[in-house]
């Protein structure tokens, strides 16, 4: 069965949620009709002219790139500009363009996971962890006989889901007391009389975006005219998503050999692999950032790793990071090469997810090197 562009975008957004993108980024669908069929998908790092030509001549219906075509706002996509011509050609050829940039950087698995795996790193964790989804806890007091019914209602509204478990709740039994005032319509007791009721205190976690729905469900399911409940905002904890990864090698290697391994495991570019540090220094713990990474030096140094693999290292940040030989060894690779391994991961994850929905697509990874540097003398 053929997938539509909408089907594929839904899968991509599930893997690389646009909400995970940085605020300055431009991700998502650039060209394409959500209803158009998608039989062939091409994955590439850059939406360069040569890659767009590859997608068009190869009969691909969708081009998925890591880097945006239109990162900054534009007032025109007229064919009088290079990017405008690309837009026109994509539309004329019926080729959709979807961008997964920093949302793929922050995903798990994402761009840096693929880079870490290519280098053989294990026990990986984020270098710059994103906070976990904001969570609340609802605490409500309910007559014991109604406890299970109320838990069912709160679970149906989105509370009580923890990992692979649902309807997770904790309760304890105590005694509640109250006196209905004039104008009240009590479910239990009489106006003016003190009432004592055996109640359960029920606690359940919920995603913060489900707060309104859970409170409405609580009020609808509870027998009391004025149910007693609290909503607590939970502390934000680090998640397993975020930029960069920290991991360890199976065995320690001298820096020179580790740098050679980096060159062997990543696609070749004219940029090559640049190294800063003692060639004989043993490397075991490694931080990686796919793409430009000199903005993360402070986190890398705080992580106390032996080496840092990334791209686009500039002179001053690099020399400062290596000052007095106290920091990690630096291994600088081409930007394109550091992100290319992610394409294979994305291809596999997307085709597998579509297959579970009954869709079959032909997905391929572009091997055209779009690194900016074409000659090294």
Structure description:
With 377 residues, this protein is of the alpha/beta class. Helix content is 29%, strand content 30%. A 6-stranded mixed β-sheet has the order 7-12-14-15-16-13. The chain is globular. The two termini are 51 Å apart. The mean pLDDT is 96.
Question: Strand order of the main beta sheet, please?
Answer: 7-12-14-15-16-13
Largest pleated sheet = 6 strands, mixed
Unreliable runs: none
Helix/strand structural class: alpha/beta
Order of helices and strands: EHEEEHEHEHHEEHEEHEEHEEHEHEHHE
C-alpha termini separation: 51 Å
How many separate helices?
12
**Globular, elongated, flat, extended or rod-shaped: what is the shape?**
globular
Mean pLDDT: 96
Proportion of residues in extended strands: 25-35%
How many E-type strands?
17
Radius of gyration: 27 Å
Helix proportion of residues, in percent? 25-40%
| Chain oligomer state | single chain
């Amino acid at each position: 069965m053929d997938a539509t562009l909408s089907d594929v975008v839904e899968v991509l957004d599930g893997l690389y949620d646009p909400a995970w993108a940085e605020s300055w980024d431009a991700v998502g669908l650039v060209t394409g009709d959500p209803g158009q069929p998608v039989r062939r998908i091409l994955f590439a790092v850059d939406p360069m002219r040569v890659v767009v030509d590859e997608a068009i001549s190869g009969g691909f219906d969708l081009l998925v790139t890591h880097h945006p075509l239109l990162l900054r706002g534009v007032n025109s996509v007229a064919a009088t500009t290079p990017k405008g011509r690309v837009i026109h050609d994509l539309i004329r050829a019926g080729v959709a363009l979807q961008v997964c940039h920093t949302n793929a950087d922050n995903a798990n698995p994402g761009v840096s996971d693929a880079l870490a795996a290519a280098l053989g790193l294990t026990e990986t964790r984020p270098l710059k962890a994103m906070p976990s989804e904001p969570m609340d806890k609802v605490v409500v007091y309910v007559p014991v006989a109604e406890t299970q019914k109320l838990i069912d209602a709160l679970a149906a509204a989105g509370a009580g889901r923890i990992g692979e478990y649902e309807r997770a709740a904790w309760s304890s039994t105590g005694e509640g007391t109250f006196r209905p005032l004039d104008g009240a319509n009590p479910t239990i007791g009489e106006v003016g009389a003190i009432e004592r009721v055996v109640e359960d205190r029920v606690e359940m976690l919920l995603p913060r975006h489900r707060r309104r729905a859970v409170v409405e469900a609580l009020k609808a399911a509870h027998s009391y005219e004025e149910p007693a409940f609290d909503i607590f905002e939970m502390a934000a904890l680090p998640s397993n998503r975020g930029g960069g990864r920290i991991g360890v090698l199976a065995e320690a290697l001298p820096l020179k050999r580790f740098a050679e391994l980096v060159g062997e495991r990543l696609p070749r570019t004219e940029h090559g692999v640049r190294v800063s540090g003692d060639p004989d220094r043993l490397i075991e713990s490694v931080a990686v950032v796919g793409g430009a990474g000199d903005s993360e030096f402070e986190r890398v140094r705080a992580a106390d790793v032996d080496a840092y693999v990334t791209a686009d290292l500039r002179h001053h940040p690099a020399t400062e990071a290596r000052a007095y030989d106290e920091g990690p060894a630096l291994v600088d690779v081409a930007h394109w090469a550091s992100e290319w391994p992610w394409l294979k991961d994305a291809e596999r994850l997307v085709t597998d997810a579509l297959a579970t929905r009954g869709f079959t697509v032909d997905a391929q990874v572009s091997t055209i090197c779009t690194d900016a540097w074409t000659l090294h003398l």
